[in-house]
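Deviations from the work plan: none for this task. Representative record:
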Amino acid sequence: MLNRVRSAVAHLVSSGGAPPPGPKSPDQPEATSLLPAAPPEAPRSPPAKAGSGSGSGSGSGSAAPAKTAEARASFSRPTFLQLSPGGLRRADDHAGRAVQSPPDTGRRLPWSTGYAEVINAGKSRHNEDQACCEVVYVEGRRSVSGAPREPSPGQGLCFYYWGLFDGHAGGGAAEMASRLLHRHIREQLKDLVEILQDPSPPPLCLPSTPGTPGSSDPSHLVGPQSCWPSQKEVTHESLVVGAIENAFQLMDEQMAQEQHGHQVEGGCCALVVVYLLGKVYVANAGDSRAIIVRNGEVIPMSQEFTPESERQRLQLLGFLKPELLGGEFTHLEFPRRVQPKELGQRMLYRDQNMTGWAYKKIELEDLRFPLVCGEGKKARVMATIGVTRGLGDHNLKVCSSSLPIKPFLSCFPEVQVYDLTQYEHCPDDVLVLGTDGLWDVTSDGEVAATVDRVLSTYEPNDPSRYTALAQALVLGARGTPRDRGWRLPNNKLGSGDDISVFIIPLGGPGSYS
Amino acid sequence: MLNRVRSAVAHLVSSGGAPPPGPKSPDQPEATSLLPAAPPEAPRSPPAKAGSGSGSGSGSGSAAPAKTAEARASFSRPTFLQLSPGGLRRADDHAGRAVQSPPDTGRRLPWSTGYAEVINAGKSRHNEDQACCEVVYVEGRRSVSGAPREPSPGQGLCFYYWGLFDGHAGGGAAEMASRLLHRHIREQLKDLVEILQDPSPPPLCLPSTPGTPGSSDPSHLVGPQSCWPSQKEVTHESLVVGAIENAFQLMDEQMAQEQHGHQVEGGCCALVVVYLLGKVYVANAGDSRAIIVRNGEVIPMSQEFTPESERQRLQLLGFLKPELLGGEFTHLEFPRRVQPKELGQRMLYRDQNMTGWAYKKIELEDLRFPLVCGEGKKARVMATIGVTRGLGDHNLKVCSSSLPIKPFLSCFPEVQVYDLTQYEHCPDDVLVLGTDGLWDVTSDGEVAATVDRVLSTYEPNDPSRYTALAQALVLGARGTPRDRGWRLPNNKLGSGDDISVFIIPLGGPGSYS
C-alpha cells in the first residue's frame, strides 16, 4: 500500500489512558485470539521485537506519535510460511527483498494453493501485507425448528478460505483481520448450516432464541409457501453473500472497539475468497484485485474501490452531510485546486450527480480543498487516503486537523460469485489474488501470460507449480536491483510496495493435493 | 407508464391561489413557449378540449382532486404527426388503438427517422407519452476570449435531437419536457460552441461575463498548459455529457417553479438522443430503453432506473436522512411486509450496504412500511411510484399522507456515448428508442429480429422503411383485440400501455434523406 496514506501515521490519535472496553456481541470472536498462540500445525513466527506483544498502555500525549505507533507495530508473517527467527529477519530485509513462500517440505496449503510475498523497498519498516489460508468448520448454532441442536459431527459445513490484507499507516489492522475475519464469517454462517444444506428456499423467519417457548410452534416458522405471493425470493447464494458482508462489518466494529489496543493501528484493504458448496465467493474491499485465468482468458472477479471509482458516492455523502466536511472541504470536484485570483471566473467542475463536466462561477466556498482530488495512484480522499473501502482507520484524521476520514470509508465488500460446477476446469485454470503491489506494474494480460508460461513447464499433477507461479509473479513485479532502484526487464521501475500473491487452482478441493 | 404510479393522481396537491413566480435564470427557456404556437413547418395538433389551455386557478381544496387534474390534462400529440382534428380524435381512441405515424406525404423527419405510437388500452384518458424530433442550431454565447461575439452564421453548431417522454399521473410534465428540454440543452451548449470546435483541450476557466474589463486579459484564461501537471484532463465529450445532465436538472427546476401552472402535472421518464460532431449521446432517466441493432447484434445503450435497480441509492438516502421517511417507512428491505406477530423473531432483511440477505431480530420500527418493496413491474418507492428517475413529480405525495416522494427521485440521466465514426454503418443499422410499453412485452432479441425481418423487405434507399419498422414494433407490442383483451400471436396479453418508438438510422445525417 505504497503512498496510499499520506502522513497518516503522523496523525493517528495516540491513545492515552485505557478506556473501558466497549460492548461486545456474544457471538463476536474473542479479541484474546489476537495474542500469539502456538497453532497445532506449525510454530508461529515470533515477534521480532521484545515488548511488541506487551499490552501495557504506552505514554499518552501527542509527542512523536508517529514513532510511538511505529514502535508498537506488530511484526509477524503468515503462520503458513513457517519462518524461523532467521527466516523472519530475511523476510524483513528491505535491501535483499527475498521472495517468501511456504516451504516445500511442510504441509501444503489447501488445494495446493500457491503463495509468495515480498517486502517493500523501504516505504514502511515492516511488510504491512498479511495473508491467511484456512479450512474452517462451521457447526450449526441451532436447528431451523428452534430445537437446541445435538452436537452431531458431519452435519456441519466446511468452507475454504483465503484472505489478503494490505495494511496502511501501520500493520495492526491487517494483522487483526488476517487472524479474525474468517472467524466472523464462521459466526455468521452458524445460523445457516441447516438452511444451506436444504434444497428448499430459505425460511423467511428464524425463531429468536433456540428452545424458547413457542419457537418450535410451526405457526411461527413462516416459510415462503405460507406467505402472500409477492414475497421476494431469496437464494442460498445471497445468504452467503449477506453473511460475508456482515462479517466484514463486525470485523470493522471490533477494530473500533479495540482501537486503543496496541495492535489495531491503521487500516487495511481486504480481499477474501470463500469456497462453499460448489461456489467461489470473492469479496473485495479496497484496491487489491482477483482475476480468474481460465483456458488463457481473463475473467475479472473484483473491482477496485478508490477515490476515483467511488467519487460520486463520496461527493453525495459530503453533499448530504456537509458537517463531515468541517468547513475545510468542498464536495465539488475541480480539475485542480481553485486559486483565490479565480474568484468570479467560471471554472470546470462536476458535482455528485454528474459524470460530465460543466463550467460554474467560482465562489468563496469553492476555494476550499476538494473532497476528492488527484488522478490514478495519486487520487486522495481529503488529501489523505487513496483507498475508499477497507477495515480499520477509525483514528485516521485529516492532516493538521481533527476531521475524521472514516465516515467516508466503507467497510463493505463487493462480492462476486463464481460457480465452480458450471465449467470443467483444467489444472491450468487458476484464481489469482494480488495486492496492489502486483497490479501497479502488471496487467491482467501479463498475469495470464505468466500463468501460461510457468504452468506449462511443470507436470499438471505437480503440486509445487502454483507456488512457482506465485513466485514468478512476485519476482516479475519486484524486478531486480539496478540503476539505483528495483527495475523490470524493460528498465521501468518495479513495484516498491509490499507484494503478495495467492494462486488458487480451480480443480476443487483435493484435486491436486 | 402503466400502473407506474398507484393512486398518484388522487394525491397530487391541488394548487390554490397562485403563488408568485419563482426566480428564473436569465438563460432559462421561456415558459411562455409552453403556449401552443404555430411552428413554421407544420400545424400543431390543437387541444382537444376547449378550456384546457386556460390558466385560471381552479378551485382549491381536496374535493375530487383526481377529476380536477384530469380535466386539466393537456391533450396533444407530437407536431410532426401533423394530425387534423379528426386524426387527433382517432389517435385518442382507446377502443381502436390506431397506430400513428408521420404522413408519407409531408416533410420527413431528420435522417428519415421512423416513428410510431399508439394510445393505451384505457388506463388513462389520453396518451401520456410525448415525443420530439428536432434539428437545433446553437449560436455561441460568447467567444472564449471573452470578447462579445459578432453574429456570424456558420460558426454555430447544429445538433440532432430525439426525445421520448413517458408521462405518469397526468400528461403535463411529458408535454412540457417534449417542448422545452432541447432548448435547455441548447442553452447549456451555447458556452461550448467555440470550445467544441477547437481540437485543443477545453480551457479550465471562462471569464465570468462577456466583455467585462479584465475578461480578455490572457492571464485570466487559465489553459491546461499553464496549470500544474496534476490537472485533470477534461474531454470535449465530457462537456457535452455535462451540458445534457445540467439541462435535465434545469428542466426539472423549471417544472418545480411552474408546478402550480395548469400544464405541469405529474412527472415523466425522459429518453433523449443528441447527435453532435460525430457522436451519439443517449441520455436516460427512467424506464424507457435504447438499443442499437448493428449487423443483427444488440448493443444496449441505456439501463432502466427502477426501485429495484436503484434500491441501494434509495435506502442510503433514507438511512442518511431519516426525516424523509416521516416515521412511516423503514429503509430496510424485507422479503414481504413484517407482521406484528413476528416481533422478536429473526427475519430476512437487507440494508443499504448489502447485496446479500441475512436474518435480523424484528423490532417495533421494522413494522413500518418498507421504503422499497415489490418486484419487477410491481416494485414501488414508498408504495407509490415504480420509476426512480425522471422529470417533474414535485407534488407527488405518499398515499394518505403529506410525505413528499420527490426527494427520492433523481432527475439526472445516465448518458452513454456512441462514436458513429468508429464503424461503417449499413442502412440496416439502427438505434431503437422505446417507452416501456414496447419493452414490457418485447425483448431486445425480438426487436433485433423484427429489424431484420422488416428492413429486408424494403430497398435499402427507401426512406419509408424506418417508419414501417416503427409501426411493426408498435403493432407487435400492442397485439390485436381478441378474447376480451389485446393479445399477441402467442395469445399472451399485449401491452395495454402507451407505446412509442423511434427508429434512428445510423448512416448519419443526410445519408438516407
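The longest helix of chain B spans residues 236-257.
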